[in-house]
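From the shared-data thread, chain only:
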Amino acid sequence: MVHSIDQQNYKFEGTWGELLGEVDERPTTSLAKFLQAKSNSPDYAEALEATMAESVDTVLRAQYDLSERERPRPHHVVKALSIRQRADLILWIQQAFSTLGLDESMVHGVALNIDRLVATYGGEEQLPQGCLQVILLAVVCTEFKTDGFSDHPDKEWKQILLHMTRGQVPMLQILRVERDILGRLRYVVGLPTPLTFLRSGGTRFVAKRDQAGPGWAMA
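Structure, as tokens:
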């Protein structure tokens, strides 16, 4: 739609919403342009992906703003949890998730929420050291609900969680700690992680790799 301009009064005919809407819909990132290029594809899946071209920039900006707003401050984290303790926690969850065949994005989600939780203490309150295992399991419980098992029966993630505890921590205790953690995090969970942005930015490269075949990686 073309808006006519009144040169004397510097006005345009039409609404600001129409004008701004047209500007916002123009792809600006390489990912948006990559998706838009699929709009005429005869492949149904690719044509469906192309419909996201107009909104992907807005979504990425919103994700980035949310990520920055909720990003924990490193000096608050290290005041309440030592670097060694944090490394041990992340290593344990990484090994456990790898054994279970879970996506690595869940490891990043757990690590982010652990950091956010620890940062809420800010060195002013003592983190309950004897409860680190339960705290970690409670954060994992939240991650299972919001990411990995949202479309699965309740008993599936509960069975995996109980397997991770080796029967040493009652489910009711984990759920109670999870409730307290969610309160400290203001019930803001499911946030984008660095891996989220890495995968979004690398989408077009993955598509090129899949189209080119095994030889592409060797080039």
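Residues 53-70 form the longest helix (18 residues).
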